Amino acid sequence: MLCMTMPPGWPPPGPPPGWQPGPPPGWPPQPPPKRGSKTNLVIGLVAGAVALVIVVVFVAIVTTTVSEDPGPVTDEQRAANAKVAQTTSEFETVCERGSIANAAAYRKPYTFVTFSESGTGMWHEMSLMKLDQNASPVPTSVNLVACLAVKPGSEVRSGSCEFRSNGRDVEVDRYAVEYELRVHEARSGRLVTSLGTVKGPATSCPVVEYFGSGDRKIYGDPDDVVVTQKLEAFAAG
Question: N- or C-end of the chain: fewer Cβ atoms within 10 A?
Answer without folding.
Answer: N
